[in-house]
């Protein structure tokens, strides 16, 4: 069997063997069922002769065990080895779950390719190459298909085949860069999650509805440890997705207790939304969409009212003629600076346009002073003509402190050591 002995016999967790070499805390054994870190799956935990195993690596076809401390046993002695069954089983479940996810991806995603995976104590991540955008709805569909495949109790098996034969089989997920541990001496280890027809329950257990019951769920080159049946995987929850690199989408999932914790959090959130909205749980999404539309309409209406308020206060201000320049200054109150800036620019352009129609050389400068009574004011300067809005703002900051910036036509600043009225007095 190619790959590691642990992958061939994943349910073996206690064994006795001879110590063949020791170098400090590093130990070699005649036979080892410890899984060495490989392909995204972490090393097994456990003990060798009552000494904790800190790390295991698969080097040149054999396991290299790193202990937490130098052992008291010697080369040539036989030792009892114990693998942490809880962590081994977690990795078996998690690794199999990643294959189940890939099988779900085969049914939902276009141009699917395998980019690698990783198991941590908290979650499993699977990197997928696909031209399909994996949005929230796709995550929900992946989650549903994964859990259906687990429920259908599909058999999981592994075998060695010649590499050349595997390359000719299009159904095999094949990535030599990420699954180096699956290859040995011209052969490759293939893991198959079988069809629902093979589960011994007539192919459609307890109401399963998959239309591909007679087809294998997933076939992949893999050197990791796996359970014998998908039902052993237990609870799985797809968590989220991200983009770790060009052409890749990373899908994260949780297995076991952490999957249950996530489901509990999601359930609590859904019930909370149901209570707050006063609708049935199946109507929560529609009600949230309605409220979001209502919020957007209110926000648009508020923005329009704010623009109208700024425009009104500028319109009520008395223009001042300063040697060919028309100055307009006004206090506009505690309104968003972006809204004030838009209206100031429009007002400056309008004043200049009115002057052009009268065949006059009109320079328009509009200054709006905003902010509340409890904090320092801000100023927005608009200029249409030869004068620079940024230069006018600089004059204000030189006199009253603060800061800001802008362009020849529009500038804004704040943090002045002055009240709004003092700023207006200085401008007039």
UniProtKB/TrEMBL annotation:
GO terms for biological process: translation. Residues 281-308 form a coiled coil. Residues 194-215 are annotated as: Disordered. Residues 1-265 form the Alanyl-transfer RNA synthetases family profile domain. GO terms for molecular function: aminoacyl-tRNA deacylase activity; aminoacyl-tRNA ligase activity; ATP binding; tRNA binding. It comes from the Archaea. PROSITE patterns: AA_TRNA_LIGASE_II_ALA. InterPro entries: Ala-tRNA-synth_IIc_core, Ala-tRNA-synth_IIc_N, Ala-tRNA_ligase, Thr/Ala-tRNA-synth_IIc_edit, Transl_B-barrel_sf, tRNA_SAD. Keywords: Aminoacyl-tRNA synthetase, ATP-binding, Coiled coil, Ligase, Nucleotide-binding, Protein biosynthesis, RNA-binding, tRNA-binding, Zinc. SUPFAM superfamilies: ThrRS/AlaRS common domain, Translation proteins. Belongs to the class-II aminoacyl-tRNA synthetase family. PANTHER family: ALANINE--TRNA LIGASE, CYTOPLASMIC, ALANYL-TRNA SYNTHETASE. This is Alanyl-tRNA editing protein. It comes from Halosolutus amylolyticus.
């Amino acid at each position: 069997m190619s790959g590691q002995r642990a992958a061939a016999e994943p349910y073996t967790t206690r064994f006795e063997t001879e110590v063949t070499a020791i170098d400090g805390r590093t130990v070699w054994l005649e036979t080892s069922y410890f899984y060495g870190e490989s392909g995204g799956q972490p090393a097994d935990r456990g003990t060798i002769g009552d000494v904790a195993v800190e790390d295991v690596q698969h080097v040149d076809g054999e396991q290299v065990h790193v202990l937490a401390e130098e052992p008291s046993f010697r080369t040539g002695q036989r030792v009892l080895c114990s693998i942490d069954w809880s962590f081994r089983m977690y990795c078996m479940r998690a690794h199999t779950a990643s294959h189940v996810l890939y099988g779900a991806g085969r049914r939902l995603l276009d141009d699917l390719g395998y980019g690698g995976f990783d198991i941590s104590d908290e979650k499993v991540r699977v990197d997928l190459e696909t031209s399909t955008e994996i949005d929230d709805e796709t995550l929900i569909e992946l989650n549903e298909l994964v859990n259906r495949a687990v429920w259908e109790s599909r058999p999981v098996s592994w075998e060695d085949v010649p590499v050349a034969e595997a390359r000719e089989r299009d159904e095999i997920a094949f990535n030599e860069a990420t699954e180096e541990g699956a290859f040995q001496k011209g052969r490759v280890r293939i893991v198959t999650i079988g069809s629902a027809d093979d589960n011994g329950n007539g192919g459609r257990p307890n109401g399963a509805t998959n239309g591909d019951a007679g087809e294998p769920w997933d076939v992949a080159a893999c050197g990791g440890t796996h359970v014998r049946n998908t039902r052993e995987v237990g609870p799985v929850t797809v968590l989220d997705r991200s983009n770790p690199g060009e052409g890749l989408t990373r899908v994260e999932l949780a297995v076991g207790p952490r999957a249950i914790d996530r489901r509990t959090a999601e359930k609590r959130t859904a019930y909370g939304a149901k209570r707050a909205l006063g609708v049935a749980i199946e109507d929560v999404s529609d009600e949230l969409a309605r409220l979001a539309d209502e919020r957007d309409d209110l926000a648009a209406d508020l923005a329009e009212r704010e623009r109208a308020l700024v425009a009104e206060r500028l319109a009520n201000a008395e223009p001042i003629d300063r040697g060919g320049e028309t100055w307009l200054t006004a206090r506009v109150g505690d309104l968003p600076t972006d809204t004030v800036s838009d209206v100031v620019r429009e007002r400056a352009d309008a004043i200049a346009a009115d002057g052009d129609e009268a065949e006059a050389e009109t320079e328009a400068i509009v200054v709006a002073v905003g902010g509340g009574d409890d904090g320092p004011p801000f100023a927005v300067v608009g200029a249409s003509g030869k004068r620079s809005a940024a230069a006018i703002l600089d004059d204000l900051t030189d006199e009253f402190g603060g800061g800001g910036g802008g362009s020849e036509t529009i500038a804004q600043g704040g943090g002045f050591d002055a009240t709004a009225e003092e700023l207006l007095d200085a401008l007039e």
